[in-house]
Design a protein that fits this description.
With about 400 residues, the chain is of the alpha/beta class. The chain is built from twelve helices and 18 strands. The protein has two domains: about 210 residues, Rossmann fold (3-Layer(aba) Sandwich); about 170 residues, Ribosomal Protein S5, domain 2, CATH 3.30.230.10. Bound molecules: thymidine-5'-diphosphate and magnesium ion (MG).
Amino acid sequence: MGRQEPPALLARVTDIGGERLVTSLGEWDRVLGGGLVPGSLILVGGEPGIGKSTLLLQVADLLAARYGRVLYISGEESAVQVRLRAQRLGTLTGEIYLLAATDVEAILAGIEELAPPVVIVDSIQAMFLPTLQAAPGSVSQVRECAARFLHLAKEGGPAVILVGHVTKEGFLAGPRVLEHLVDTVLYLEGERYQAYRILRAVKNRFGSTNEIGIFEMAGGGLREVLNPSAMLLAERPAGVAGSSVVACLEGTRPLLLEVQALVSPTTFGNPRRLSTGLDYNRTLLLTAVLEKRAGLHLGGYDIYLNVAGGMTISEPAADLGICLAIASAFKDRPVEARTLVLGEVGLAGEVRSVTQIERRLEEAGRLGFRRFLIPAGNRSRLISQGEYEVYDVRSVVEALEMGLGT
Ligand code: TYD
Ligand code: MG
């Protein structure tokens, strides 16, 4: 043990140890809070095959181009396999050093000489310490190996990025057991058979959480999507009932999402309620509000709800949009295409204000939306309304009148 540092005045504590390491992959940098902090420990989790190795090889290349040596430790794929991937990605230009190894003691002994500013460990489940009895991938191995890399990072060493596999079932010996240990936890999500991938910060000691980066998986690896709202709304059918657009905040960024509803008469037994991308209980609650407060007799109908593009919405700000989509489908009357709907809905059918309304409307305005149905409570805080038609609503009933012309 070294000598204990005396307590320091908080205001005098110096900032993060040096400049953040940035890439030209803006989405990656932003999710990290503006780049990789030297000496930090980062966990990148995701299901097998989602694109973690692809992303990190690209990041390794971009970092190597700017900061020199990046060490990529591959515990799962052989050196040849990694090279083939790098060739496909066109990332054979920079100074990426490859080590196909799994013995952490040996790896750490070898790192000293190279002294890279960034080390990528793909994956933490493949690593093992020979002194431990347990098998690689077990909780104790994963935890101990990660602790060694933490030590490496914190002793004035490189930024270390650990890759961790998560399975659908939640997975015990993976990222979950490491979340408290690392500085930053990022998850790469998406449907394997759909092109886009979302990189989400769920913990970040150096930036805001819930920040997301959106990528598209293409032939040459992951490409950033610079205008995700436009991409997500691109295939929205025009003039069809059962669709509404809401603006949700993902981290610091507003994102426009389409809520779709299908309402059809129940043919047998109890009516079905299904929702993908939305909280199931929340949608039941909103359905009940529509029945009781707006007088829609939904009891004999099946209701299917979906967020287009495989996205998920967890914000109550989307409540009113969900209500409008259901009512639109039920009445078979489309919502005008350039209408954005915002508002949290309470059990009395009242519409409550949402946070950061200006930023949401700005994003909608940028994408050509012109009619805004917003909570009356937000109106007073709206500085300007520009060339937009802004309607303030107090209740679900009012919103249906304005949104569907009922
Ligand atoms: P990979 O990075 O190996 O996933 P993980 O490390 O998370 O297990 O990604 C594998 C998938 O990505 C594979 O199914 C093929 C696809 N892919 C592309 O579509 N384009 C590419 O350029 C590359 C390298 C992979
Ligand atoms: Mg991989």
